[in-house]
Amino acid sequence: MADNFLERHYEEYEARKEAWLKRKKHFPKKVSRTLEKPDDEAL
Questions:
Q1: Which regions in the chain score pLDDT beneath 70?
Q2: Range list of β-strands (E), 1-43
């Protein structure tokens, strides 16, 4: 069991995390748009 199991899995985790962060930077940020109500509420 002492075959560097934890170290290997931590390195794999760090590699996945780095790849995720790189992909995350390329996504556009979500912009919330507010709908404007017309002045005339009868429409």
A1: 1-2, 41-43
A2: none
